[in-house]
């Protein structure tokens, strides 16, 4: 019998080899995608360092500023990867925006908010957490700010990796506190201020969740549960859009335009009320025209909330860029100031090139690494549609206004994610209430068992516990990391 391989054997071997090659190619592409993102991020960090070198080429502290610029760029990338998801997640989860559209809008409006309306002055000790008098000299201060910058960036990076949206402002707060304690002891910390920040961990998500749930209840009672849903929508959607316009105008007047003009709370509310009134009269005929020919069912209502939701996501991004970028690049601005003038002040100006690093870093981070957290916030905590996502966005603006009025430091991350939890838990409560109501009319055999009810929870408890745990440990974890990094840097130098 001949043992020579025939043509069929060759073909089978070739098929197997091609299949192996196909698997290898697929695997290579899978590995290459994150590597490409990391490569682009690394190039941006290097370019940030080169930019700092150009501006401070002849300065004795050139290397320190270059290193700080690199870490500032790294921090900005992490903000884009983590923090921006809170603004865009609900709109993407509700299918009002595609992932690409969300990233494009967020990149434009975050950058515009940072560059056009970002604070031109930032507190070097992050809202009065550390007493500057306790810091011995400018060199110690520089290493403390460097440690705060590195630790907060590392913590946000870790949180993004595990899929937990955390407050970047709280990360910086923890970093500054830890480095301050390592440099000057516990007495240097302003504990009443830290107490307010700790209280905001609870106040921000609870207030955001309660407001979002209240608006969802209003929409369900006044529109969704009505016999003629379209007629109800024509009556109430213009009112809801007007409330959104009033809230966002007030929000932007308070938080987003600080660099251009200083506006107090009564003035901001007056401007917001005027914008809301104008929006109502403009929106009413548009909603009536848009609702013509729609079927009398819940699916039709989603069309009416889609455009307002897109606008709210864009405005949230603008306000976030204006409000949070300064906090992120604050330690970098403080290092630049201390290196240039040899001293440190309670407040310093942010150089334009530092703000540009912050703005572009956020855009790169969002584009390269943002989709993971956008999906988490938008669809993995609870199922969102345009009505629910609209309630989340509206609650974010209103909660910030209420918190500013009460003088409470709040986190935009905690508010937005709290809003998602709020609509999810309200839906659970409402579904359970309606189930109990209908069960009274049912025979006992058709009622749903308690075990099955627990299985039908509308908020994923695993994500809920992960996010809450990340929130609680953000400040202490960033503080401990910062203290260790400060001690290492100080030991290397000395």
UniProtKB/TrEMBL annotation:
Superkingdom of the organism of origin: Bacteria
InterPro entries the record matches: Phos_transporter
Primary localization: membrane
Residue stretches in coiled coil: none
Keyword match Transmembrane helix: yes
Residue ranges of the TM segments: 36-57, 63-81, 93-118, 138-160, 197-221, 233-254, 260-282, 303-322, 350-369, 389-406, 464-493
Keyword Membrane: yes
CC per GO annotation: membrane
Compartments reported by the entry: Membrane
GO MF: phosphate transmembrane transporter activity
One example of a Gene Ontology biological process annotation: phosphate ion transmembrane transport
Recorded topology in the membrane: Multi-pass membrane protein
Keyword entries, A-Z: Membrane, Phosphate transport, Transmembrane, Transmembrane helix, Transport
UniProt family annotation: Belongs to the inorganic phosphate transporter (PiT) (TC 2.A.20) family.
Name the record gives this protein: Phosphate transporter
């Amino acid at each position: 019998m001949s043992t020579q391989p025939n043509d069929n054997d060759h073909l089978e071997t070739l098929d197997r080899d091609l299949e192996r090659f196909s698997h290898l190619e697929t695997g290579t592409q899978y590995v290459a995608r994150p590597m490409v993102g990391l490569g682009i991020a690394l190039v941006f960090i290097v370019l940030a360092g080169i930019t700092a070198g150009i501006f401070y080429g002849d300065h004795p502290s050139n290397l320190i500023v270059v290193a700080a610029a690199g870490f500032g760029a790294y921090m900005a990338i992490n903000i884009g990867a983590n923090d921006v998801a809170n603004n865009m997640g609900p709109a993407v989860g509700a299918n009002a925006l595609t992932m690409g559209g969300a990233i494009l809008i967020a990149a434009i409006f975050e950058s515009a908010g940072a560059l056009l309306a970002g604070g031109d002055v930032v507190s070097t000790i992050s809202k009065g957490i550390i007493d500057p008098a306790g810091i011995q000299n400018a060199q110690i201060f520089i290493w403390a700010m460097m440690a705060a910058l590195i630790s907060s960036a590392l913590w946000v990076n870790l949180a993004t990796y595990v899929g937990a949206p955390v407050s970047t402002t709280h990360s910086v707060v923890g970093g500054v506190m830890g480095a301050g304690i390592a440099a000057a002891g516990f007495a240097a910390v302003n504990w009443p201020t830290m107490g307010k920040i700790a209280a905001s961990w609870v106040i921000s998500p609870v207030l955001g969740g309660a407001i979002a749930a209240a608006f969802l209840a209003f929409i369900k009672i006044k529109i969704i549960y009505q016999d003629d849903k379209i007629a109800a929508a024509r009556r109430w959607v213009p009112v809801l859009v007007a409330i959104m316009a009033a809230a966002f105008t007030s929000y932007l007047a308070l938080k987003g335009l600080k660099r251009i003009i200083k506006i107090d709370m009564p003035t901001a509310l007056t401007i917001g009320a005027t914008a809301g009134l104008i929006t109502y009269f403009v929106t009413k005929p548009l909603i009536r025209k848009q609702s013509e020919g729609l079927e009398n069912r819940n699916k039709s209502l989603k069309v009416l909330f889609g455009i307002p939701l897109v606008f709210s996501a864009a405005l949230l991004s603008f306000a976030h860029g204006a409000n949070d970028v300064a906090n992120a690049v604050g330690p970098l601005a403080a290092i630049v100031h201390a290196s240039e003038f040899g001293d440190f002040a309670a407040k310093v100006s942010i150089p334009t090139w530092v703000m540009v690093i912050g703005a572009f870093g956020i855009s790169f981070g969002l584009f390269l690494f943002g989709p993971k957290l956008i999906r988490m916030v938008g669809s993995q905590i609870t199922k969102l549609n345009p009505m629910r996502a609209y309630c989340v966005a509206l609650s974010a603006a209103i909660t910030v206004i209420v918190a500013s009025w009460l003088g409470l430091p709040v986190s935009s991350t905690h508010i937005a994610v709290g809003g998602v939890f709020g609509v999810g838990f309200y839906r659970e409560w409402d579904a359970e209430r309606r189930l109990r109501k209908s069960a009274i009319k049912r025979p006992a055999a058709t009622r749903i068992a308690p075990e099955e009810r627990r299985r039908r929870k509308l908020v994923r408890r695993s994500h809920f516990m992960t996010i809450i745990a990340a929130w609680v440990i953000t400040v202490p974890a960033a503080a401990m990391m910062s203290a260790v990094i400060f001690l290492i840097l100080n030991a290397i130098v000395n």
